[in-house]
Amino acid sequence: MAVSVVMPALEMAQESGKVISWRKREGQQVVKGEPLLEVETDKAVVEVESPGDGILSAISAREGAVIPVGQTIAWLLAPGETAPVATAPTLTGRRTDNAAGAGAASAGTGNPSAPVSSETRMSPKARRLAREHGVDATRLRGSGPGGEILAEDILKAAQGAGATASAAGKSQTSSADITHLGTVGRLMAARTTQSWTTVPHFFVTREADASGLVETHQRMAAEAEKVRGVKVTLTDLLVALVARVLARHPRMNASWVEDSIRHNAEINVAIAIAVEEGVVAPVLHHADKSNIGQVAQRRRELTERAKSGRLQPADITGGTFTISNLGMYGVDAFTAIIVPPQAAILAVGRVGDRVVAIKGAAAVRPMITLTLSTDHRVADGAKAALFLNDLVEAIGDPKKLLE
After folding, report:
1. pTM of this structure
2. Cα–Cα distance measured from residue 389 to residue 382, given in angstroms and rounded to the nearest whole number
3. Active-site residue identified among 249, 263, 286, 376
4. What does CATH list as the number for 3-77?
């Protein structure tokens, strides 16, 4: 029986996906669960598995094509079987045709040669991005079905307008001065710009005595490596502690969705991981119910997949809170940008010895600085402060929550 391969919905509010590459060629035998293609979403490039067994046939989405979610892009057939229906044609996202390229590039510059439609069909996300980037959408040729303007069309138009303005102001700049971002870099740039310009951030900072955290880490790391062969990091302990503290502060685990606060039933902690082109944030699901060994094992798997560009759809979906730790780079403290629709992100600095006052006397203690970025639409300063208070207490004595 023929099995259709459709553009999957890999995240909330996703309207389309971009085909980056096919792992299999048309005519090859494919087994269910085998890597089939790579798709770019607003968050990352993910590896999509085959939905069934069969011969890969009738591929209609070329590499670079932007496809609406749910549209069939190929079929898996038995020997001698034919595809039930013809798959709808798609437009290549690489803009190799001159007309489409001119339309996208000229939209942000007001070039009168760009096609103008009396009724501009746009996705809600594209409409919002057009307002944010100042793109005249009436001059844009859409790449979606029936000429609908998608978010990618707006971003490319804005990028084209920026490049034109830069060239006009710096005509002597050589091509060696320009760095062209890869897929992950472009996604990170678009995502952080959207968050910083639309989410009302505020920041709360606390210093914590990490003596208990360091002691617990040393003991648990030795036990986990001996029993499971797993290397436990300070980040693993922080993930487990943060997840358990979030259970006491549901508003910090909530999300801002369509002018309302959604209280998430699960506690899924995302970890910001640096890759060659930027940062991705795979998710540790049910982190509040996972022990240290499970957290460490899952974190290692996600890190390996992220660095090799083999993240699965489930790896990047469902995050309710994010941790960004730059302590391993020697950073003392920093502020991080929220990952919508999450309500908050925790920025973690390094553990370093500092002189502090203990009962009126100077003492040296390993200290750590935590900075919480919060969406003010979801939680106020008092709620953020109470969350940090409980987290600082948990870091001081991790055994209360972890054992």
Report:
1. 0.67
2. 10
3. 376
4. 2.40.50.100
Q: How far is C-alpha 87 from the chain's CA centre?
A: 30
| Numbered ranges of CATH 3.30.559.10 in the chain | 201-402
**Measured distance CA(91)–CA(59) in Å, rounded:** 13
Please give the torsion angle defined by the CA atoms of residues 150, 151, 157 and 161, in that order, rounded to the nearest 10 degrees: 160
CB atoms within 10 A of CB 241: 23
* 129-169 pLDDT, tens digit each: 777 677 877 778 787 766 778 877 888 887 776 555 555 55
User: What is the C-alpha separation between 26 and 71, in angstroms, rounded?
Assistant: 18
Distance CA 19, CA 180 (A): 20
Residue with tokens 């389309």: 16
Nearest to 306 by CA among 279, 331, 325: 279
Tokens of 153: 């069309």
Q: Which residues pair with 6 in a beta bridge?
A: 72
Q: 358 exposed, middle or buried (CB, 10 Å; 0-12, 13-18, 19+)? A: exposed
Alpha carbons 163 and 332: distance in angstroms, whole number = 36
Q: Encode pLDDT of 193-218 as tens digits.
A: 989 999 999 999 999 999 999 999 99
Structure tokens at 195: 């968050």
Instruction: Please list, residue by residue across 273-294, b when 16 or more beta carbons sit within 10 angstroms of its beta carbon and e when fewer do.
Output: bebebbbbbbbbbebbebebbb
CA distance 271 to 299: 8
Strands in 16-22's sheet, in edge-to-edge order, are 45-49, 35-40, 16-22, 66-68
Third-level CATH fold of 201-402:
Chloramphenicol Acetyltransferase (3.30.559)
Q: Compute the distance between CA of residue 169 and CA of residue 171 in angstroms, rounded to an integer.
A: 6
H-run or E-run covering 300: helix 292-307
Residue 376 annotated among the catalytic residues of the structure: yes
Q: Cite the residue boundaries of each domain of the chain with CATH code 2.40.50.100.
A: 3-77
Q: Side chain identity at 43, as an amino acid letter?
A: K
Q: What is the pLDDT of residue 90?
A: 43
CB 179 within 8 Å of CB 366: no
Distance CA 279, CA 282 (A): 10
Q: Are 349 and 332 in contact (CB under 8 A)?
A: yes
DSSP 122: B
Structure tokens at 154: 């707006």
